[in-house]
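Progress narrative, Year 2. Work on Tryptophan--tRNA ligase, mitochondrial from Austrofundulus limnaeus advanced from sequence curation to structure prediction during this period.
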Amino acid sequence: LKPPKRFFCAAEFPEKKNPPGSGRVFSGIQPTGVPHIGNYLGALENWVALQNQYPSVLYSIVDLHSITQPQDPNQLRNNILDMAASLLACGINPEKAILFQQSQVPEHAELSWILCCLTSMPRLRQLPQWKMKSKQKNEGCVGLFTYPVLQAADILLYKSTNVPVGEDQVQHLDLAQDLARIFNNKYGDLFPQPHALLSSIKRVKSLHDPSAKMSKSDPHVMATISIADTPDDIALKIRRAVTDFTSEVTFNPKTRPGVSNLVTIHAAMASISVEEALLQAEGLDTGAYKTLVSEAVIQKLTPIREELHRLRSDRAHLEALLAQGNRRARELAAPVLAEVRHRVGFC
Ligand code: ATP
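Result:
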């Protein structure tokens, strides 16, 4: 199948976006460790706001995606529960959003296979994440190549209309839009066009290497601040954050990525603008400014860390909560997949 010549981005069709009050929101996060402040500011804070704005919201712990990288089974089992606890601690409310584990809804994998058969190899090969990850992993597994199709299946399975994503995922959402179009053209209208909801924080950078994004799977302990970090951990990591040889605090992510990343974090954590953060930094050198940034991060994360600690101690509660979410997700997924199976000609 030939992909359309040009891949449209949701932002080009603002008038077609489902406004708050209608539509269905879907998003996912990999159980690859406790979320960091990049996940929090770039995704989770927004997820919490969206559950209050849309009538139907699903958040998935996408364990099928996580095995595109090697995982220790015991660690993965723990990470799934840890992620459930983390999402709840950040403010996800299971009364407002369906919180579930992707692998427990087998419809995801089946729809993904069907969509794989509608996707051309060149379409996947051009995706920047594949180019970057396959280079790092020396090619990587087939799952790493096709996971954007699984992401499309995750979204389309619930006929989702709005997908909060980070900037790094926009091309994958374009693919989901294309696959909805391709399926609808071939088998008749079924899937609505899903649109991106971009968060205002585009990318929080690694504290160790501000040219890279902050990432859960970054092995460098000083690179990320997790939501479970203690005030001492946070202060130490920010004190050690890589900046440059200029002591003045200014904001220019291109020429001064390290200090600009701290300004971004400060502004987002203290809920102020970048301009206001720079005003507060006036007269401070980067060393003194780091103390101010630490204070803002510690203040924001302390209640989250305490709630996470409480939730982690009750595994049975987390398991029961996920089981309930899995059931609710499956109730929505099953009729859509039954319709897909019928249209494709399986029954
Ligand atoms: P991994 O290292 O396992 O790939 P990750 O930290 O990149 O994990 P994901 O689970 O892939 O995180 O993504 C969860 C959500 O967090 C996505 O919406 C993604 O866009 C967002 N996100 C991830 N890293 C950042 C970051 N550094 N800044 C802003 N948003 C981010």
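Residues 1-16 have pLDDT under 50 and may be disordered. The chain has two domains: 10-203+315-344, 231-311.
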